[in-house]
Amino acid sequence: MASASRQSQGELDESESDVILRLDGVTKNFGSVTAVDDVSFSVRKGEFFSIVGPSGCGKTTTLRMIAGFEQPSDGRILLSSEDVSRVPPYDRDLGMVFQGYALFPHKTVGENVGFGLKMQGEDPEERQEHVADILDLVDLAGTQDRYPKELSGGQQQRVALARALVIEPSVLLLDEPLSNLDRKLREEMRFELKRIQEELGITTIYVTHDQEEAMSMSDRVLVLNGGESEQVAPPYDIYHRPRNQFVAEFIGDVNTFPGTVEAVTEDDYHVDLETEATGTVEVKRTVARNEFEVGDDVLLNVRPEDFEIVETGHGEDRFTGQVITSTFLGKRTNLLVDVGDQQLLVEASGRIEQDGSKAEDAITISWKRNQCILTDVDSDHVN
């Protein structure tokens, strides 16, 4: 029987003093529907923390509870060790950037950015200086007198960010802030957001459905599924050491082989794969998040980039298949390979086309024993 601790790698110890935000068993019900179910995590001061998951998994609801726009049905939200679960949004010392920016169309950029300072009663001259400084930080110097309709989507996003930052919040919340931008601009704004976050050292909680955004920007990532927390960990561990099959499949591409543990040694699991192309393979025990016993049903996962194209022939942890399609993507080429009873996605060097591998070619592929992921067969967590 497979066993695993509920403590996910990347979660913080309760005694750590640099925690600024903590969710403790937070649940949110809308009538008979549970949108967020017993979610707990902590965020460090200065950390870039992302919440990622499929549509409807509870990401935005979780963020709205942190912001104070929704109250939890159960559990606590602690900000700087103070329970703010029932504190209104304006008393939480948080800044928020919404998906739709929520700018006032009839106000200038300067008035939009300075709105929070005005509500705080800041002197007009000081407010003007602060607005000018924050606009310079987000690369919008000199735009104070323009209106939102005169700005591009990327510039409007920067105005929304400046408005959230100018009040100097303890935590910055961002709800899918790049989703309305085209791909090239999204990539540019990723770098800008991370630069600004690091320059200010501000704690940031970032909600996105885009796995690449979460992985490229974050110190740690929370993966949600059906309102439940699947894993909290640094991006590297989320990708290479997913806690279960859902995380393995949701974050990046993966090829999955069902199998059964036939033997267990000090260093390896011997797994009989249910495929015509190969039989029993040896897998390093270090790639498994659970402890398995003989007879356990498992899933062996190999990332496309962890396959190697090797000389033709059968042997240890290798099998031959036929290339169905070959897609050139610049630095890499994606091959779809038919190995009999399964089709595999294989990522190869961008030079593969020049090297001769193309559709209808027979190739042999292999992977290393320490470059795969072994997970438990658990229908509750399989995507």
TrEMBL record:
Catalytic reaction(s) noted: tungstate(in) + ATP + H2O = tungstate(out) + ADP + phosphate + H(+)
Compartments where located: Cell membrane
Key words of the record: ATP-binding, Cell membrane, Membrane, Molybdenum, Nucleotide-binding, Translocase, Transport
Keyword ATP-binding among UniProt keywords: yes
A single cellular component GO annotation: ATP-binding cassette (ABC) transporter complex
ABC transporter domain residues: 21-251
Record-linked SMART domains: AAA
NCBIfam families: potA
Family: Belongs to the ABC transporter superfamily. Sulfate/tungstate importer (TC 3.A.1.6) family.
Protein name (record): Molybdate/tungstate import ATP-binding protein WtpC
